[in-house]
Amino acid sequence: EAGVTQFPSHSVIEKGQTVTLRCDPISGHDNLYWYRRVMGKEIKFLLHFVKESKQDESGMPNNRFLAERTGGTYSTLKVQPAELEDSGVYFCASSQDQGLAGYSSYNEQFFGPGTRLTVL
Amino acid sequence: EDQVTQSPEALRLQEGESSSLNCSYTVSGLRGLFWYRQDPGKGPEFLFTLYSAGEEKEKERLKATLTKKESFLHITAPKPEDSATYLCAVRLWSSASKIIFGSGTRLSIRP
After folding, report:
1. I want to staple B46 with a disulfide (CB 3.0 to 4.6 A). Which of A108, A116, B5, B100 is the partner?
2. Per-residue DSSP letters for A53-99?
3. How far apart (Å, rounded) are the C-alpha atoms in residues A41 and A70?
4. Can you tell me the mean pLDDT for B63-68?
5. Nearest chain B Cα to A116, which residue?
6. What is the number of alpha carbons within 13 Å of residue B45 lying toward its C-beta?
7. Distance of CA B7 to the CA centre of its chain
8. What is the mean pLDDT of each run of 10 residues along chain A (120 residues)?
9. Bridge partners, A22 (sequence order)
């Protein structure tokens, strides 16, 4: 079974340009998450999709970031225009149904290898 | 503010030398605590979930324990292949989605 894939693995752009990151979750996983790690900091939650709907986007830093998940399959994260502080590693993760009702067990999140974004 | 703190930041051990990594948390309503392993250039790999104080989980040379304030990841007789960054993360009752990560412990095992 293929794991979570992310494209590109690295991206170097100049300040003010636009970059689009892509994530392909594991087939059949309804839940898709975006995280990022900026230099020297911990991994931080950005947003969560359930199928094509945004469940929680409280971690999105500002309106320069736009995430979409067309048809509940792959997802894209666009940064427009990119700023220097956007540099970091962007991770995507997916999981099966979380079973949110009640004291549910955690369905492990499978992470992709990440996209390293450098804004010059 | 909800916070997860891991210590030490880095740990170097000799092969076979057992030790523990610490994850302390200050959160409002812990729903679950997770341990992940991360190798260079890769995403985090899930290891354990703990839900309540007193719970323990084991996998090969690793054992995770949980109290009301902290979690420990005990590594027994480690091997060089156990070298990685170990991440602790928590999920809260206040959010079905968000996971808060600690900054990790870089573990290096010398042969």
Report:
1. A108
2. EEEE-TT--STTEEEE-GGGS-EEEEESS--GGG-EEEEEEEES---
3. 30
4. 96
5. B41
6. 10
7. 10
8. 92 97 94 93 94 92 94 94 96 79 62 96
9. A7, A76
Q: Length of chain A, please?
A: 120
Tokens coding B45: 């790999």
Residues of B in contact with A107 (CB under 8 A): none
Show residues of chain A in contact with B99, CB under 8 Å.
45, 109
* Beta-carbon count within 10 A of B61 CB: 14
Integer Cα distance of A63 and A81 in angstroms: 10
Indicate yes or no: CB of A42 within 8 angstroms of CB of B104: yes
Residues of B in Cβ contact (< 8 Å) with A42: 4, 101-104
DSSP for A6-17 reads EE-SEEEE-TT-
The residues of A whose Cβ lies within 8 A of any Cβ of B are 4, 33, 35, 41-45, 47-48, 55-56, 58-59, 91, 93, 98, 100, 105-106, 108-114
